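Example 3.2
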Amino acid sequence: MSRATYALTRDDAGRTDWFGSLMVRYPTEMSRHDIPVRTLARLARILEHSCGDLTIPQYRLMAMIGEGSERATLLAGRLALTKPSVSGMIDALVDRGFVTRTPEPTDRRAARLALTPSGTRALRASERSMAERLDPIIDGCDDPAAITTALTQIEASLNRVVDARLAAKGATGR
């Protein structure tokens, strides 16, 4: 069996997967998604601890505001959070001076959100800190460029899934 290509074999002791030069043995009761899911959970915890002054939900919210999402209702849909949760987070970020809320001229019920210079600095600091934690992990892989490409593809897939979910609900978020 070539290590250069993905191969899968089954035997009584479980399953063996080859990922390039890495062999992973799974007990019979594990699915092929168990280790990636556990790895993503571990990475989430690492990122959570390296997010600086922000929580992961605050980071995600500020990143979306920084990308141009301005309305809390749309942000709630894209983040898969309730509107009250997002409103509470926005209130806390406004209180900290990271986000501004200005009235929407065409809709009295809505407000436009924007990052303040302080919020942009906090967002960038969190991103730098998280990148510093991820760099040695990704660089320790056999093909760091493939990991980066895969993560970019996962992001695009996530966006498509979220867009489809929002479209089915009749909402938009971009």
